[in-house]
Amino acid sequence: MTVVPLVVSLVIVGVMDASSAAAAGRATTLALGLFIALLAAVATAIALVAPAIYSLWPGGPASRDALLPHDGGPAPAVPGLADQFANLLPSNAIAAAAGNAMVPLVLFALIFGFALTRLSGVQRAPLIELLRAIARSMLVIVGWVLKVAPVGVFALILPVAARTGSGLIGAAGWFVFIQSCIQGSVLLAMYPVAVGLGGVAFARFARAAAPAQGVGFGTQSSLATLPVMLEAATGGLEIPARIAGVVLPLAVSLFRVTSPANTLGAACFVAWLYGVDLSFVQLTSGALVAIIVALGSVSLPGQVTFAASHIPVLLAMGLPLEPVALMLALDPIPDAFRTAGNVTGDLAVTTVVARHDAGHVAQAQGAAPGTMESAT
User: Fold this and answer.
1) Is residue 219 included in any domain, yes or no?
2) DSSP conformational letter for 75
3) Whether the Cβ atoms of residue 101 and residue 87 lie closer than 8 Å to each other
4) From CA 178, how far away is CA 52, in angstroms rounded?
5) Are 357 and 243 in contact (CB under 8 A)?
């Protein structure tokens, strides 16, 4: 019920926010480019490896049926290659919204958002405020649903567990383990970014990031971790406050580096449950929507935006939506790793921007740019 208005409003507002941030200066422009590049890299890597990882589970049909809300059934039909390419852009945006055609709808929202940037501030301001209000209202509804979600999830799990027994534990454990490993891998991948592109020593970055990672793991909220990240950046990493004060809030608002890994990994799990062999077009469509959804995510705990981020990717890949409620019940552990990974990514991007800014300042002063530490 909430997905279409929430996704459309978040994407359009996200385009406007990104456009305004890019105009703010060189540092924010570089940060936005890094956000998109890292999200694309994560999405590509997960699309390549996640299907193979899930196929390693040797449980067979009994384990695969354990988390299905219904008994077996044929695999969902997937549109052909030509049809999927032909339907990327909607001939009717309203029909795309009514039919849950998520890829065309998101692309339309992107085009609409870019068109809004061409209007004057007076013309677009009322519409942007309306879209922000729609997004916040949808999140209020999602919050109401989450308050009663434990009862619904219990009602879903109980008959399935009674029917399948230990098979449920095996399939659920496999999902939690693989998703946690995927999020942990993204977290570790941010260290080479900080070391190789940010010019920070590995041990120094690890020491500075550890407190923020701990707070993120415990709170499962990047927004709640922002003060600790600012302290880590300006203190342990000695990044100028004018850089950290701009890049980190922007990162918390727009950048969730683990989001594509989370949504694509979950989609691959659903495909494994239903015995669907994902095609190149399905994985490409899912990766594209995962990147856009990640950029449109708001700075709230992961449970609030779980459905809004997963359902568009599942719809784009032609996969069933029934397992979403069960995956939400299993998400707290992966979400802790996910938030810690996002915090690490935010700090890594900030080091890269700070190094680039230091080099620019050194060149402007007629000095040879050195490491981030020496330049700052």
Assistant:
1) yes
2) P
3) yes
4) 11
5) yes
Q: What is the pLDDT of residues 125-180, one digit of tens each?
A: 899 899 889 878 877 776 677 677 677 767 766 765 666 555 556 677 888 888 99
Per the structure, how many domains does the chain have?
A: 1
Closest by CA to 63, choosing from 170, 160, 215, is 170
* Mean pLDDT of the region 60-69: 52
Nearest one of 241, 253, 222, 272 to 50, comparing CA atoms? 272
- The mean pLDDT of the chain is 77
Residue that the structure tokens 């209007």 belong to = 119
Q: In this structure, is residue 190 part of a structural domain? A: yes
Q: What are residue 367's phi and psi, to 5 degrees?
A: -105, 155
Return d(Cα 328, Cα 319) in angstroms, integer: 17
Name which of 260, 229, 277 is nearest 45 in CA terms: 260
Q: Which domain holds residue 238?
A: 25-79+157-375
Question: CA 136: distance to chain centroid?
Answer: 18
3-state secondary structure of 320: coil
Residue carrying structure tokens 């599942």:
314
Q: Which amino acid is at 370?
A: G
Determine phi and psi for 317, rounding to 5 degrees.
-95, 0
Report the alpha-carbon distance of residue 298 to residue 231 in Å, rounded: 22
What pTM was computed for the model? 0.70
By three-state DSSP, how is residue 99 classified?
coil
The whole-angstrom separation of Cα 55 and Cα 191 is 29
Q: What CATH number should be reported for the domain holding residue 335?
A: 1.10.3860.10
The tokens describing 302, both together, are: 């992961």
At residue 328's C-alpha, the angle toward residues 251 and 66, to 5°, is: 140
| DSSP-based three-state secondary structure for 356 | helix
Q: How far is CA 174 from CA 66, 171, 319, 343, in A?
A: 12, 5, 19, 25
Burial of residue 306 (CB within 10 Å: 0-12, 13-18, 19+) is: buried
Which amino acid type is present at position 331?
D
Residue 138 domain-assigned (yes or no): no
* Separation CA 27–CA 104 (nearest Å): 32
135 in a structural domain: no
Nearest to 258 by CA among 174, 345, 351: 345
Q: Report the distance separating Cα 350 and Cα 235, nearest Å.
A: 13
Sign of CA dihedral 109, 318, 45, 6: positive
Residue 39 Cα to chain centre, angstroms: 8
